[in-house]
Automatic annotation (TrEMBL):
UniProt-recorded name of the protein: tRNA-uridine aminocarboxypropyltransferase
InterPro entries: DTW (IPR005636), DTWD2/TAPT (IPR039262)
Organism annotation: Sesamum indicum
SMART domains, sorted: DTW
GO BP term, example: tRNA processing
Catalytic activity, as annotated: a uridine in tRNA + S-adenosyl-L-methionine = a 3-[(3S)-3-amino-3-carboxypropyl]uridine in tRNA + S-methyl-5'-thioadenosine + H(+)
Domain DTW: 150-300
Pfam families xrefs: DTW
Keyword terms: S-adenosyl-L-methionine, Transferase, tRNA processing
E.C. code: 2.5.1.25
GO molecular function, one term: tRNA-uridine aminocarboxypropyltransferase activity
Amino acid sequence: MLPSTSRPLLSCKTPFFFQPQQKFCNFFNKTLKSQMGTKPFSSKSPSTLPAGARRTTDAEATISLQEWQGWGTISPVPSMVKQVIQDLKLLEQDIDSEMTFDGNHGKLSGDFKVHEDKKHRAKYASLANSEEKLQFFSARQIACRLLGSRGYLCQKCWLPREDCMCSKVTMCSLWRRLRIWLYMHPKDFLRQNNTGKLLWQVYGVQAASLCLFGIVEHEEMMWNELNHAGRNKVWCLYPNKNAATESVKDGVGCAVDPANEDGIMHFILIDGTWSNSSAMFRRLQDRAKLVWGQELRCISLNTGVSLMHKLSWFLI
């Protein structure tokens, strides 16, 4: 028995796209087991890193638009992510210590981690307000994952290249009047066991778009579309304990106007642990009140009180 850290919406236990369900879960379990004991790796692929090399080139200190969008996003490269990557490369040169990563999640390791930890904590403490702190936190998380995953993970399925499952995914079309926004926490970005990425793998990045929590370019892109659609065409799939939660039939069914071919309905799916999703949901509601003077409408796939709010423990 362990404390629950499962996601509210998307997990390998949710038969979202594949049948049979058990086969899909077994695939991820097998993949995770096969990656245990992975040795630290640098921001360069081990096969291309010359013996005794200490630094990377200036060209590798940036993220190109092609590389960035290859991970499943349609936005420009976030400016703060680029700045964090440049700062990491400068630190690598200043201390003459190569950047290395432990495990599979883009976590810094070794002597470089000690120096970088002191530097980023000082930077975080110097920021004036909580919004700046959030943006820096998100940018740093994403920058480290981008550098640590280069040449290691498949950009489409976020699994090690030798375990790529892209050939097993079949794309299909989403209804043209429906758009999904996957609002993802930075700590879930490029995680191998993340299942939210399947949305744009199956439906495409224009129909199912990634929006990273705390990344200004992503959040502004999403809210521009939501504001254009209007509050009555936007729903958040999240069990809100403090407000009446509509069912899909009652909340969405009445909003479908067959005569209106241009009315696109937008659905926001939160992808993060339960503790992180609470902060993400509050941020969405705060923005909605600024834009519309009211909170987002929430829907639930099941009517009544969500059982997930009553769970404190779950079986592995």
